Amino acid sequence: MSVRKAWAAGAAVAAVATLALTGCTTSTAPTNGGDKGGDGEASVLTIWQNSTTGPGQAYWRDATAAFTEEHPEVTFKIEDIQNEQMDGKLQTAVQSKDMPDIFMARGGGKLADVVKAGLVKDLTDLVSDDVMADYGDAPFAAFSVEGKIYGVPTAVLPGGVFYSKDLFEQAGITETPTTIDELNDAVAKLKDAGIDPIAVGAKDAWPAAHWYYWFALRSCDKDTLLDIATTKDFSDPCWLDAAEQLEEFIGTEPFNKGFLTTPAQSVANSSAGLIANHKAAMEVMGGWDVGVIADLTPDKKPLPDLGWFPFPAVDGGKGDPAAMMGGVDGFSCSVDSPSSCEDFLNFIASPEWQGKYATAYSSLPASAEAQKAVEGDVEKTFLAAYQESPYMSMWLDTLLGQNIGTALNDGVVKMFAGDGSAQAVIDDVSKAAERD
Amino acid sequence: MSLETSLAITPVNKRTRKPKEYVKWGSPGVYLAAIILVTVCITPVLYVIIGGFRDNAQFTTDPAGFPNPWNPANYINVLTGSNFWPALINSVVVGLGTALGTVALGLMASYVMARYNFTGKTQMYSLFAAGLMFPATVAITPLYIMVRALGLTNTHIGLILPQIAFALPTTIIILVPFLKAIPMELEEAAAIDGTGRLGFFFRMVLPLSLPGVITTGILAFVGSWNGYLLPLFLLGSDKYTLPLAVQNAATSQYASDAAMILAYTSLSMLPALIFFSLFERRIVGGLTGAVKG
Amino acid sequence: MSTTQTAPAAGRIDPAGQRETPRPVARRRRIDWRKNGEIALLSGPAILIFLTFVIFPVFLAAFYGFFKWDGIGALEWNGLQNYVWILEDPEFREAVGHNFGIVIASIVLQGPLAILFALVMNQKIKGRSFIRIMIFVPYVISEVVVGLAWSMLMQDTGAINQLFGLDISWLSDPNIAFWSLMIIITWKYIGFAVILMLAGMQSIPEELYEAAAIDGASFWKMQWSITLPLLGPTIRIWAFLSIIGSLQLFDLVFIVWGRIAPSAGVHTMAFYMYTEGHLSGEYGFGSAVAVLLFLISLIVGLVYQRFVLRRDIDGALTDAPAKDAK
């Protein structure tokens, strides 16, 4: 056989093999899902969770041990997957249709995609009544797709502005800003006192983008904002208005030195690290920041003078100044998981274990009962704001889905770097929306 | 003639090596250049190693400073922690397997392409060279599916084989010219002696191409040692190699402990460096005087 | 002894005691079997593994380039649209420009430096092992750590600015960022170049230097006339690997610059592939970028093979016959 024919034959084989392989990925025994058992039969549940050290990791060991005590036929296999790697591994699991029984989910577009692939268990009727009563509807909203529930929340992480009370005092700021103008004044006072006013981790894109999300939340009315995931239409002037106001704000140069190459939270010179070491006064962040900052202080304890105030109201904004934005963490069951899966999720949704989760993860529990037990001062501040808010949106990039979300984040970053205008942000996002 | 030639080109081994060269001091200029070079190369590395003795806050307040106080806690934590040593062993196993496999397979294939003449030779070379040009990051998902279909996920061999495959192009590109450089006369002499091509391969080619072999072996080992993407997708956390274990040990849910990472990576560097320093002499010492006329 | 008119049959010894007349056809067939067997035996394992774990996944990934795919749901046929979008995007074209800038700068900066250092390292002076190990250290460290260390050093508030009392935005200033990248790349990969050059120098026989020394040539004259020319094949191979590596650069850029890379003017094609593909959940798009990256590398590789490596390898990527066919 001549060489050329050999290549042609080889290509044909490859093509056939491709089709065959994409078709039969389920032919080998799944490795991620555990052993299936019926009710009362022995089963092994695999859990993919995102805490690889410390109290978070210990929480899962404790919770699973406690559950096994009550239900001896159920045992667990826990995979600790580092937060940044979780998405990638989950995706591979989805593509090879080899899901773990219990996995971390954040709701929004990503969860909807996995649901569409038919790999997530519908929990609408499987969540216990106690849990539903305790949580209320709000936390489940993030995990609902077309009216059905696909996950159980474990933490709510509302956002706002974290600040150092000591540094504010040093600069002579007596009241936390409630409007952007007041924020500008505060910035000026801090600069006069020789303090970097605002830390932002623009290197990771999303911390800078959060500024835009908040401006948009304040500028756009409730429906325009909450529906954007379905309409994907940015023609409402509020979107451009938000971008322009942000552009103006950036022009006052309120950020820390070298903010463009500052990461958000992973290393000592991150924006969280700056706050932790009193090198900057404020940071716009989500509820997890308390724990992150605590890790980066010199004595690794929570920052004693840390405070929180809601994002200020924006000029001419149609959004409610008390509206909140944040993330919701939770866990879902794979469609093949045994019934012990939802039993376990209901188990950890109890106020007792919710309280333990909140402590371990330094976050707000989703359970209203457990929320009553929240202790930290800072946490109580934003918990109150969360409970009183008229409505809450997810982070815009989670809401919009990966494609548009990433385009939005990148566009805002360019604006921060002085490399693009407000209009360019809207254009980029619209272009990405077209392609969706 | 044949016998004399065979003797004359006996590969260099310990028994026939020249007496050790007198190693003298070089000129000051050379040492000055060397010092500058070494300083530039080492300083960032020292930053990493010494950084391991600090804690996170120190970095923010004083980026360029020395540890104050010197805090060995990170290094001690890593060495006594439960995930460093297993990860180290995993990395060693996978690294050695990859290096040996790459060298063995690469050398054999390079030999074929360098010294045989057959239709399809250029296509074979093109095949390997072309594989170098496709970024591995995109092929990762189909690769995972392939490995899973073979039932090799979360095994050492399941990681070693793809790593060998990805290391082959560089290996072949480096080795082929090395092998081509061996003169035909040696091969003809061997043929007349009746050893045939395979015998020639084992008795002459291997020793003569040793510098190239060692080089590619080192490259393959180092590549495997630092590999991050493939182990991430193909291994479960009980078999994590060092680059992955770093993340797990030092990174909590949202933040990571920079100083711990620096300590961890300093310790991870050591085996690769040791491997290199063991073999780097052989790169130089192999060939002098071996090939005459 | 009778004279016969017929040629002696193959293999048979002529009555006159002459050696057998070889029958060409039989001899060639025997050699072919053995030779093909050896070829298969020696190259088989490598080819098998390569096809399974590289070529096949690569074809599959390239196949995805014609689709729109979010990694989870179904594949949506998109024809050549992905490719059109990519080629229309100014950010991609900028990336291509950056890549080629890195290609040229890498060769120009690393090549002469590496040869120089290899010459120094090749001398039998005391401490040379130690020096060699030190130079190779940057290459041994993983890119993640290199990126981490250099980003901490080059931050606006980082160690370099602090030590030298400077106020330079090494990373975010678009005028400087590219050169900062080249500093990091050179630092990391010079060891690789030096080690290749060193290995190449080992093939140069001592006798040549001894003869030149007897003739009274100076050290530098010897290097210029003997080492450099004979190092030619090694240099060409190193340059080839350097070019391909430069075209595929991703890790260092992403770890040091993060998502600021485009604004800093240092993003590469692979970076674009990662942000527009993986991060955006557009795997079809990402695969299309990968295919383009591959094609560009392939063309560069072909051109390089044809014009530069011709004499070293038998016209490997082209079908041109070798000048000195073995």
CATH superfamily heading of the largest domain in chain C? MetI-like
Briefly note the CATH topology name of the largest domain in chain C.
MetI-like fold
Q: Tell me the distance between the termini of chain C.
A: 43 Å
- Count helical runs of chain C: 14
What's the number of extended β-strand segments of chain A? 12
Give the name of the CATH architecture of the largest domain in chain A: 3-Layer(aba) Sandwich
Global mean pLDDT of chain C: 81
User: Into which percent range does the helicity of residues of chain C fall?
Assistant: 55-70%
CATH class of the largest domain in chain A: Alpha Beta
Helix % of chain A is 40-55%
- In terms of DSSP E residues, the strand content of chain C is under 5%
- Outline of chain A: globular
Question: Quick one: CATH superfamily of the largest domain in chain A?
Answer: Periplasmic binding protein-like II
Number of domains of chain A: 2
User: Major sheet of chain A: size, sense and barrel closure?
Assistant: 10 strands, mixed
Q: What's the N-to-C terminus distance of chain A?
A: 47 Å
Largest sheet of chain C: 2 strands, antiparallel
Number of strands of chain C: 2
Report the principal-axis shape of chain C. globular
Describe the structure.
- The complex is a heterotrimer of chains A (436), B (293) and C (326).
- By secondary structure, chain A is of the alpha/beta class.
- Chain A has two domains: 43-157 and 326-384, Periplasmic binding protein-like II (D-Maltodextrin-Binding Protein, domain 2), CATH 3.40.190.10; 159-325 and 394-435, Periplasmic binding protein-like II (D-Maltodextrin-Binding Protein, domain 2, 3-Layer(aba) Sandwich), CATH 3.40.190.
- Helix content of chain A is 49%, strand content 15%.
- Chain A has 21 helices and twelve strands.
- In chain A, strands 1, 2, 3, 6, 7, 8, 9, 10, 11 and 12 form a ten-stranded mixed sheet that branches.
- In chain A, strand 1, helix 2 (54-70) and strand 2 (74-80) form a beta-alpha-beta unit.
- In chain A, helix 9 (206-219) crosses helix 12, helix 12 (237-251) packs across helix 21 and helix 20 (402-416) runs antiparallel to helix 21 (422-435).
- By secondary structure, chain B is mostly helical.
- Chain B starts with a helix and ends in an 8-residue tail after the last helix.
- The model of chain B is unreliable at 1-22 and 284-293 (pLDDT under 50).
- Chain B contains 14 helices and no strands.
- With 326 residues, chain C is mostly helical.
- Chain C folds into two domains: 2-64, no CATH class; 81-325, Orthogonal Bundle (MetI-like fold).
- Helix content of chain C is 69%, strand content 1%.
- In chain C, helix 3 (90-122) packs across helix 7, helix 3 (90-122) runs antiparallel to helix 10 (232-247) and helix 4 packs across helix 7 (174-201).
- The longest helix of chain C has 41 residues, at 24-64.
- Chain C is globular.
- Chain A binds chain C through residues 14, 17-18, 21, 91, 94-95, 110, 113-114, 116-117, 202-205, 257-258, 260-263, 267, 269, 401-403, 406-407, 409-410, 413-414, 417-419, 432, 435, and chain C through 55-56, 59-60, 63, 70-73, 85, 148, 151-152, 154-158, 169, 171-172, 257-260, 262-264, 275-276, 279-282.
